[in-house]
Predict the 3D structure of the following.
Amino acid sequence: MREHYRDFLIRNWEKGDRTRAAAVISYVLSEYGLGWEPKGADRDVLQVEECYLATGGEFWVIEHQSQIVGTGAYYPISRGEKAVEIRKMYLLPSVRGIGLGKYLLQQLEAAIATRGFQQIWIETASILVEAVKLYESSGYQPEIGVETARCDRVYVKYLG
């Protein structure tokens, strides 16, 4: 992945991004009163090679003026049929509200569709109001079966 949105670069994760990507995610979680869980729900951010790259997923970072300002990722899951879960879609507050999140979601969906997946699952927390709005306005349907402790919503979108 190497795409531009305005003056933002969306690119594949590199080893040198680990700490900076984790810092973005941790910051956004804390902004909403959610905890960073390096041994739990956020372990995958510290183990991108094993959790994403080795399983057929992708992990992207968004750069602005050489600073990481966001992340987005997905990996295959056993829930559903030919399914993936979009994970770690976070943007710093300074880059929200300009369409970047919607663009990122569309790019993730396009990459997922190209690889032949048929279902996209997303778990989130109600407190992440902007994320909930984005997913619902992008055709994601509420489902049941939340698997991540800090999340209270799960959505699915069927690709056709």
About this structure: The chain has a mean pLDDT of 97. The beta strands are 2-5, 8-12, 58-64, 67-77, 83-91, 119-124, 141-143, 153-158. DSSP finds five helices and eight strands in the chain.
